[in-house]
Give the backbone structure.
Amino acid sequence: MRRLSSALFLLGLGLLIAAIFQTMEFGSVAPIAGQAINTVAAEQVGAANFVTAVVLAYRGFDTLLELTILFTAATAGGLVLGKPRAGASRDPDSGFILRAGADLFFPLLLVVGLYIILHGHLTPGGGFQGGVILASAFFIPILARPGTSMNHRRVSLIEGFAGAGFILIGLLAMLGGKEFLSPLLDQGELGALLSAGSLPLLYIAVGLKVGSELAGLLAQLSETEATD
Amino acid sequence: MTMDTGLILYTAAFGLILIGSAGIVLSTHLVRIIFGIALLEAGANLLLLLATYRAGSAAPIIVEGRIPAVMADPVPQALVLTAIVIGVGILALALSLALRVQRAYGTLDLREVRQRLEQDIAGEAGIDLPSSSDAPQAVMTRQEGQA
Amino acid sequence: MQLLVLFIVVVMLCSAVAVLLLKDFLAALAAFSVVSLGLSVLFVILRAPDVAMTEAAIGAGLSSLLFALALRRLGLWRLKE
């Protein structure tokens, strides 16, 4: 009975998708809002990467809410997992190759992650991508040496301060009488590292917050009790 | 790009959505359902980006001062970026909950978990449950042992 | 270009079906990484480099790492005969 109803549901979903399929065209859509943003973003925001301009300048409040969603998911995951297990050194030793590789990889990933975060308004990249790379950079040494544990207090501190930093940058703009998240710094010239208002600062806050959050989550998942 | 490429890409997006939905609806193992959720999200992100594609456009980035004539739409790209990051948050929470389910019930097979949950609730409320012929074997023997 | 897109889409859909049909969960995880990789190449073809970088870093990187850690803690790491 369950199989029959599942098959019926999937058939209906497929028919609905086929019906929508008939009306969609490919490659000839006229973007109205996107076109307006593309023409004025270079002068208004000063960022060479328009996607960054949309994420942080035109839709900065949505990014703040997205950071909240990510924080809720990571905190809830940590709450559900519970206490770390007692026998953390029960994992077998990971061998010389993994340890040497991890020691080589850690500074490389750190530099690449910071580069991507800092150049988010000039090239493709930004806080989210660089933050994920930073998270893996901080998790790989724990993978290589199974006995060590991450200092969760320090990670939570960095995460909290980075998130507060984002809101603080927005509030500081309000002190001058302007709106929330107005640009703090000068716009600078297009293509320079210090340009585009407060976009680099915001992305640094986003990158640190995402990186520390995901690193803490991975460490908690790896330290939790095994169920076998 | 011609219309045929559009057909192929739309088939990919809808195919991923269908396969993800099939995984969620037809699976009995919790981890496979989580895989299905991840596939469904991937298909939805591809569909979102595909629906606003403009033929012959360039990436919305200014490189070395040259501004392309026709640029892609940056707003759906920002939305999909956000959606992908939220997807990984959802995945982390789903896997943590799966770990909890295994710790509480000892199994990840959804049929057994459902039966045990109903028995626990009925036991605490003091009601007698009608046994069904669909129940898996391990639960049936436990019921017979209790009765 | 069309041949490239066709090849990537075929590989992606076959891997997606394999994710659901493979008994070994580690192999299903590898197939899921292939789906993410194909998706990120498609994003580059669709003129969205930011999204492609995010999908590559998160889908093929962090998501697979999360799954692998969870599989190990769940005891599903090896196929039990």
Observations:
- The two ends of chain C are 45 Å apart (CA to CA).
- Helices of chain C lie at 2-21, 25-45, 49-74.
